[in-house]
Amino acid sequence: QVQLVESGGGLVQPGGSLRLSCAASGSIFSIFIMSWYRQAPGKQRELVALITSGGVTNYNYAGSVKGRFTISRDNAKNTVYLQMNSLKPEDTAVYYCKASRLATEYWGQGTQVTVSS
Question: Which letter does DSSP use for residue 64 in this model?
């Protein structure tokens, strides 16, 4: 079992930055692929970015996060981060953390990010 707790969301003005954190407990964090997803009101949940156990990253550029968001992980702290810069109103969503390995996956409860002036 893996428990995931996201934090760092909030209200930010357009052009601002936030760093989301997802703290994991309960298993060997380093073996999991860690991902960030988001779900805006009335829309499907979409992948934002993922990072493998070896630190390889992949981003969903269809979501227009290219060059603005950075995913990273600290295996010593059992934590994955999502640095979000140059935020736009369309980035407003609930952001979820996911841990996955083979056919098993675990989700956090989500953290709200609202980008508004």
Answer: T
- Phi, psi of 94, deg, nearest 5: -90, 130
Contacts of residue 33, Cβ cutoff 8 Å, sequence gap at least 6: 50, 51, 52, 53, 99, 100, 101
Look-up of token digits 């952001």: 95
Between 27 and 102, the higher pLDDT residue: 102
**How many Å is the maximal CA-CA distance in the chain?**
42
Using alpha carbons, select from 32, 22, 25 the residue that is nearest to residue 81: 22
Report d(CA 91, CA 32) in Å as an integer.
Answer: 26
User: Which sign, positive or negative, has the C-alpha torsion 39, 43, 45, 46?
Assistant: negative
* CA 82 – CA 71 distance, rounded (Å): 5
> How does pLDDT run across 60-94, given as a tens digit for each residue?
877 688 889 999 999 999 999 999 999 999 999 99
